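Possible regression after last week's pipeline update?

I re-ran a chain I had predicted before the update to compare outputs. Posting the input and the new output here so someone can diff against the archived version. Not blocking, just want to make sure nothing changed silently.
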Amino acid sequence: MPYRTALTALAALLAAHAPQLFAQGGGVPVNDLCTGATVVALSPGVPAVRNGDSGGSTDEVGFGAAQVWEAFSLSQCMDVTVDLCGTTPAFPNSFINLVIGCPIANIVNTGVFEFVTCGDGNVTILFPNLPAGTYYFPVINEPGSTGPYTLTFTGQVCTTPPPANDECSGAIALVPDAGCTPVNGTTLGATESLPAITCAGITGDANDDVWFSFVASSSDHSVVVEPSLGFNPVVDVLEGACGATTSIACGDQGALGATETVVLSNLTIGNTYFVRVYDWYGGQPAGPTFTICVQGGGSAPANDLCSAVIADPLALGGTLTFTGNNAGATTLADADITSLLNDGVPKVWHAFTLSDCAIVTISYCGSTPPFDEVYPALTTSCPAAQTLFTAQADFTCVDTNAEITFVGLAPGTYYIPVGNFGSGSSGDYVLTVSANACPAPPPNDDCANAAYIEVLPLPDCPGSSTGGYNSGAVLSTDDPSCDSSTNGYLDVWYTFEPGVNTQVEVTLENLTMSDWSMAVYEACGGAEVACVQFPSGPVTVTTIPNQPYYVRVMTNTDLGLGGDFRLCIAADITTTVGHPADEAPFAVFPDPAQGFADLRWSGAAGLVRLSLTDLMGRVVMTEQRSLVAGGVSRLDLTGMAPGGYVLRCETADGSWQKRLTVR
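New output (post-update):
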């Protein structure tokens, strides 16, 4: 069944501070805003039923669907069930969050909801271990889930015992270690010991804080918390005695499932420090478990954590040399839980910063013994999130080490993972990192400047394919049907005419691109007729005879980099009549033209159909003329919009086309 969570909308609102709610006029329900909600006091085991109508409500707070508000208050910890049982017709969709505060201060997430218990298709949602307070529930108003409703709040006294480290006095002792063996933790059943702190500019809800401690064995340590997917941890590091602690550092990346790493310095060796962990949101998180450890003071490499490395500037034409040893590396805080580098392989890190677009080569040449496995990847964040992979990686050093090239890296900071995959990639290494200027943008970077490509006989592909590259192309954001991107695409364009053929085969041979795809369009900005990600062979495209088509070759920069490729377009040799522009039996001048252009014909005398098509695929002129070899025929361009056009000449022997620019 579908459901709606207000999590994303609320997170955006909270990041911009609490929204202000304003009184409404007109035909909206009285509880259209949370200020109009009736707050019912829940008693254990006594259902509180609310009847209302969500029709006509607004989405004043930006949840993505309109809502009205109902509310309840608790005087003690309760497990609260919210259901819409009895609502007719049933609501197939619902919000599954509670809101704390009016205006909104925080939300309560849940992982426990279902559409079975009611028996009528309505939702039942469980919010376990809610502490005393007032909570607001948004009743949805969207097509299919709108109108009269019956809402029931039911509370039962909490029975989940708090964990042993619910208070500072029960803090679990952690032992700092170079390898950092994680200790399991949970906030299940925990209660608030201290108010939430403001960390990274925002303040969460510490209703479920738990405690740990460690004795500093070094002046520098790192506290690392790796949460479950449904947990958004806040890590508060304190000094002093229980009851008189002072916060000295904190970590709050602000994302569910995101690893928090708090790097500590200037600690006093031998002193005891406390670590308080809680979920940023209210109530109990959908996944209350996590692991925690304290790293430092041992034998792990100094660059075991990406957060411990400093990015060195890398200039065009310059070189950096990094040396190290990845023995004893850990997986600690290497990558976000959804990252492709969250692969369980221990890593150490280096980093560099570019001020200009660059081709960057990372060489392991000189590492002894040679590394038999390396990452053909970089990441732009720490811990690693987005990962950039390259297809230009091979063991080409004379000592059999690897060389890896990344083409078209934009200005910014990049982290290099050095993985310890096993005995063949563990120990001393040397990295030489060099940068050279990016290639010039491809001339066919825009569809308006698409490069003409000849349609060949089928046996000639891919042997007679055309080479191209998309490195240095300007990013575009239009998603094709076969792919989607957050960061955009490096794309280049080609155009072809199928002649009288009703289908052609398009073959894209990737050489050095990564995360590539190909699409075919009827015109610039026109309808897409084919799209394939990672094409492994010829792609058959249905065509309209004698109409231009446009091929887009692209790299998705979420994970990939531009590079080189070969492109070939073929059709049945017996029906191929299109010819490349340089074989056309005519010339057109001047080019660019203004007001008129002259066509000099060098082909056989006879009837010739002339057509002029703009780069959107629209025919703006067509007529038939009788031409003789050596004759000149004038084309009237009066009133035509400046830009690029395709002039096509068709005879009984074939068709030819040339580009023409109108000023």
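Follow-up from reviewer: compared with the archived run. Residues 1-26, 574-582 have pLDDT under 50 and may be disordered. Marking as no regression found.
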